[in-house]
Each structure stands twice: as C-alpha cells, then as structure tokens.
C-alpha cells in the first residue's frame, strides 16, 4: 500500500474532477427524474382510461430491468436505430428513465395514502378535481414522500458508478485509471472514494431526517 503516492496532488485533483462529473450527472438526473416521475405518478393515480394502464406497464417493465442493461441500451442500442447519444447524455438518460419509474411509484403510493374522505369533502365543497389534487392532496402527500424520495436520490448518486461500463469519466472511472498506474494504490484510492460517497450520501440522509421531523 502506498498512501503517499496514491494521495498525490495530481491524483486528488483527478479524483475531484471525476467526483464533479458524478455530482453533475446525479443532479441533472435527479431533477429530470423527479419531474417525470411526479407526472407519471399523478397520471397513474388519476386512473385516466388507457393512459394509466399504458404507464403502469411501462413503469413495471423498467422497474424490473437492471439499470446496467438500460445504460447499455441507451449507449449501444439506440445508435442502431439512428439515435446516437454521447457518454454523459447516455448516462443521464439511463438514470432518468430508471429513477423516474421508481419515483412514480413513490408519488402514486404517497397520493394513495391520503384518506379518500378528504377528497370527497373537497369535491363536495365545490372544488374541481385539479384544485383538490394540487391544493389539498399533493401538499399532504409530499410530506409523506420526502424520506423515500431522498432515499431514492441517494441510490441514484451511488448508481452513477455503474456508468463506468461506458467510460463515463466519473469518480469510479477516475479511481480505476489511477489504480492502473500502481497496484499499491488500490486500497488507498478505494478508501478515499468510499469516504467521498459516504460524506455526500450521509449528508443527504441527515437532510431527509430533518425534513421528516419537520413534517411529522
């Protein structure tokens, strides 16, 4: 083990550059998947004829596929039908597709947890379905969704490491390049990136706990 050589300034700078890519890909994927997942979850909850059934099938298919397979599909299979995406865009697309399906279930479950009596009371008071949904149901459901949503975001951040298979220059890929220079760097480098992942993910979990305590 060579901690001094592994933690040279050049290596640390290279790792932080990879970590920046990890955070960038995760951040964009989180925003997109939250928006898409929320829309899909609301549409499924609304039980719109045909639309809800089609979305349910799509969500179930995606949720039961390995994320690694979706990454391969976006990067290697889509070009076969004329859709060529770069490495970063492919990784973001794959993560967004997978996480949107997961988040849509969280949103749908959160909406279903609201008592039907509140919906009936709101409708009987003259509110439209849209007013009831966005003014009464959704705000309450969001409070209950915070912990599982943040947990899903933590999983997404960790899942960015799977994009190493398509050579996305993220943290794990950077670590592999450094480890290839000297076998004595392997343990120190992987310990270092483990700490980096832990710090960010633990910070997110603390945020989730604080939000949960505020909304309890």
Structure description:
The protein has one domain: MetI-like fold (Orthogonal Bundle), CATH 1.10.3720. Helix 3 crosses helix 5. With 216 residues, the chain is mainly α. The mean pLDDT is 89. The longest helix is centred in the N-terminal third of the chain and has 38 residues. The termini are far apart. The protein is 79% helix and 0% strand.
Strand content: under 5%
Per CATH, which architecture? Orthogonal Bundle
Q: What is the terminal separation in angstroms?
A: 48 Å
Structural class: mainly alpha
Quaternary structure state of the chains depicted:
single chain
Q: What is the class in the CATH system?
A: Mainly Alpha
Membrane topology: Multi-pass membrane protein
Transmembrane segments: 20-43, 55-77, 83-103, 183-204
Organism: Priestia filamentosa
GO molecular function: transmembrane transporter activity
Brief description of this entry?
The chain is mostly helical and 216 residues long.
Descriptive key words:
single chain, 216 residues, mainly alpha, MetI-like fold, 0% strand, elongated
Give the topology, please:
Elements: H1 3-6, H2 9-46, H3 51-63, H4 67-77, H5 87-112, H6 116-124, H7 129-159, H8 171-179, H9 186-215
């Amino acid at each position: 083990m060579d901690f001094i050589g592994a933690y040279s300034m050049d290596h640390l700078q290279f790792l932080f550059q990879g970590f920046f890519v990890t955070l960038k890909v995760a951040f964009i994927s989180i925003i997109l998947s939250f928006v898409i997942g929320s829309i899909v979850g609301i549409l499924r909850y609304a039980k719109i004829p045909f639309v809800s059934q089609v979305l349910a099938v799509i969500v179930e298919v995606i949720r039961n596929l390995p994320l690694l397979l979706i990454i391969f599909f976006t990067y290697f299979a889509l070009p076969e039908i004329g859709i060529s995406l770069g490495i970063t865009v492919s990784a973001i697309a794959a993560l967004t597709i997978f996480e949107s399906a997961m988040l849509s279930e969280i949103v749908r479950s959160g909406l279903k947890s609201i008592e039907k009596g509140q919906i009936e009371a709101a409708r009987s008071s003259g509110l439209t379905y849209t007013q009831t949904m966005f003014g009464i149901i959704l705000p309450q459901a969001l409070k209950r969704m915070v912990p599982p949503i943040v947990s899903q975001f933590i999983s997404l951040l960790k899942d960015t490491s799977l994009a190493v298979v398509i050579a996305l220059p993220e943290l794990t890929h950077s670590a592999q390049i450094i480890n290839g220079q000297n076998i004595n760097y392997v343990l120190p480098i992987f310990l270092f990136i483990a700490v980096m992942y832990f710090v960010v993910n633990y910070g997110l979990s603390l945020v989730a706990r604080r939000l949960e305590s505020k909304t309890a």
